[in-house]
Amino acid sequence: MLDWDDLRHFLAVAETGSTLAAGRRLRVSQTTAARRVAALEEALGLQLFDRRQAGYALTPAGEALLDRARAVAHAAGDFADAAGALARDAGGEVRVTAAAIIATTIMPPILRDLHHAHPAISIELDGSDELRDLAAGAADVAVRTGGPPDGPGLVARRLCDDEWTVYCSRGYAAEHGRPERRRDLPGHEFIGGGEPGVWRIYQSWLQANDLEAAVAMRHSTTTGLLAAVRSGAGLAVLPCLVADQDPDLVRCLRPLPKPERGLWLITHERLRRTPRVRTVLDFLAARLHALARASAG
Q: Do you know which InterPro entries this protein is assigned to (predicted)?
């Protein structure tokens, strides 16, 4: 099998007339240049140069192959240029999936800034609690909460803990007082609901604290749940990463850490080095890390 590196040395010796000059051009030793030429001759079963005291002269076989070797070098250069252009081109569409409560709250300003920084990238945001199959190509990047993602070929980065606690609006706190301990919660009404992924966590917290009967109304969507809490209709259990960014909401209780739950940034191994996907992953990771630090502080 031919070695492209041997062809490079053949061309350098043919064009400079010596292994010394070829070595200087290629930044290798004279010995290496001579060895590479000899290896090519052995692989081809042909003598390409006559070794003379004045230098290396092409044989008829070497002359016959010189233009073809130059064509290979030109093709290799075109290949390298095309690969470099692809590596630099971070343009194109990236499909991002995130749970509805994340997609409708913290993602819009992040994606706005991503567009300003990388206008050649187009984002399709899927705000669904349904887990998309990244291996099957249903999405390129996922922002998810829960335990470690499990699936063939998934590459995941844990960004922070997924902590939840009780929130109310500033207006509610001014009118009814802000409960600061669990024993302060009886007598306050809760707004329940949200998508199934939100309500499952929320409801388990209410059950654990014997407060499920305090739910005065339920909304089927996260948007409705947040709107009701902002209006001052009652308290709600919400993810800290989301609620701490909302200027209308105030945290009531210290969150209970759940180390088994985290916020994850996920892609598939076949996409992790695709320039546009890599750009989106790095941008999301930096911004979500910053939000997590602000929430923890």
A: LysR-type_TF_proteobact-type, LysR_HTH_N, LysR_subst-bd, WH-like_DNA-bd_sf, WH_DNA-bd_sf
